[in-house]
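Re: flavin mononucleotide structure - here you go.
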Amino acid sequence: MFYRPEDGHGLPHNPFNAIVAPRPIGWISTRGSLGDNLAPYSFFNAVAYVPPQVMFASTSSKPDRDGTKDSVAQLRESGVFCVNIVEYAMRDAMNASSAALAAGEDEFGVAGVEKVQCETIDCPRVGGTPAALECRVTQVVELPGEANIAVFGEVTGVHIRDDALSDGIFDVMSFGPMARLGYKDYTRVENLFSLARPDE
Ligand SMILES: Cc1cc2nc3c(=O)[nH]c(=O)nc-3n(C[C@H](O)[C@H](O)[C@H](O)COP(=O)(O)O)c2cc1C
């Protein structure tokens, strides 16, 4: 089949995010004048090495947040956010934190996760994750469409859990990172292969 998005896909569910998959999950923690916030975002990725930079995108809005969701509203105030990396064992807590709670309600409590203070920014992070990236906001970009907002950040601090490092390698097989597929589906990294580049 072929479709133009403006004409509709004609399928029971939009296949778009099942096509762009698997996507890593940025579990985004923020602090604002109303309190602390935590929510997962799978429109998320790393975008540069030096300095290290990441992005995530927020789509749609909450009635109490003036055209966006809590995470973007909070980081617009503070200028910082933290990306917590989700392991399979944290899947239920991550999912619980996606509930659309009222502004100011703290998903750390709802998800039952430990709150730890970041080192380089005034922001909470999730304790015990395999890794976390403390970030300073560099750009907030309004995208076409309603309430589509991309946030870019420079990484100012990197946490790696001791048991996720083996022989100097960040060993993803030790914890099984989760990624988002389409619909209600997820995947977990369970096997790995390597390829040398042609010029290596
Ligand atoms: C695995 C997962 C990935 C998600 N990815 C996104 C995303 O990329 N962008 C988005 O706007 N919402 C995404 N959501 C929905 C948000 O987590 C949800 O709207 C949440 O309530 C936003 O929280 P906040 O208002 O506290 O920022 C995702 C939800 C889940 C469970």
